[in-house]
């Protein structure tokens, strides 16, 4: 499994940190992806429900690495960065997001560290919540976790509060100022990838 090969268009892997069909973050992630696409990226938007994983357990890993963990590792290897829209649960990021990152970071089939898949790649993060802070505390935790894995997390971030009034449908953020801000996060990821490539 090799690292992503630089190409004219940066490739980004995008997902929402929620499985709920009506999730505000599932509605928000395409807005973030649109910003990256407008800046010249190719975006692969996945649903984590299609990559179901058990809670990380070293005994499960020792018996056999789950197929979906290997699939996610392969996707990470093929992309230059991440776009994540996360809910906030009890002041932190969801177990779904942490568990996904934990499995991807496990050793690869060839024995190399899975954390190598994240090294020098770029991430952009946003959140949405029905509360007034918009999931801001989850972004603080997620930013730290991604940085520890070796990702450069762009400084721009957006927390969409009162999301029930602003995210009526998939990809529809009716607050123009916040929509543009979310799209700028995606664009910032693309710019940072180009800087990293130029060395």
TrEMBL record:
Domain NADPH-dependent FMN reductase-like: from-to ranges: 11-163
Keyword annotations of the record: Flavoprotein, FMN, Oxidoreductase
Gene Ontology CC annotations of this record: cytosol
Region forming the signal peptide: none
Cross-referenced Pfam families: FMN_red (PF03358)
Coiled coil ranges: none
Molecular function terms from GO: FMN binding; oxidoreductase activity
EC number: 1.-.-.-
Needed cofactors: FMN
Highest taxon of the lineage: Bacteria
PANTHER family: CHROMATE REDUCTASE (PTHR30543), NAD(P)H-DEPENDENT FMN REDUCTASE LOT6 (PTHR30543:SF21)
Protein name (Swiss-Prot/TrEMBL): NAD(P)H-dependent oxidoreductase
Protein's organism: Lysobacter firmicutimachus
């Amino acid at each position: 499994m090799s690292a992503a090969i630089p190409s004219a268009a940066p490739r980004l892997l995008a997902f929402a940190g929620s499985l709920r069909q009506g999730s505000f973050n599932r509605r928000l992630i395409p807005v973030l992806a649109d910003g990256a696409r407008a800046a010249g990226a190719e975006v692969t938007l996945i649903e984590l429900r299609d990559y179901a994983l058990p809670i990380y357990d070293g005994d499960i890993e020792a018996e056999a690495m789950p197929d979906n963990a290997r699939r996610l590792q392969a996707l990470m290897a093929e992309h230059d960065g991440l776009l994540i829209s996360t809910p906030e649960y009890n002041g932190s990021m969801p177990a779904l997001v942490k568990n996904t990152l934990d499995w991807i970071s496990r050793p690869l089939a060839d024995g190399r560290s899975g954390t190598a898949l994240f090294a020098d790649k770029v991430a952009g993060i946003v959140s949405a919540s029905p509360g007034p802070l918009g999931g801001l505390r989850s972004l603080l935790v997620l930013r730290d976790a991604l940085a520890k894995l070796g990702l450069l997390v762009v400084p721009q971030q957006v927390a969409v509060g009162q999301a029930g009034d602003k995210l009526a449908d998939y990809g529809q953020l009716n607050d123009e100022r916040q929509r543009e801000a979310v799209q700028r996060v995606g664009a910032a990821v693309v710019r940072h990838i180009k800087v990293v490539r130029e060395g």
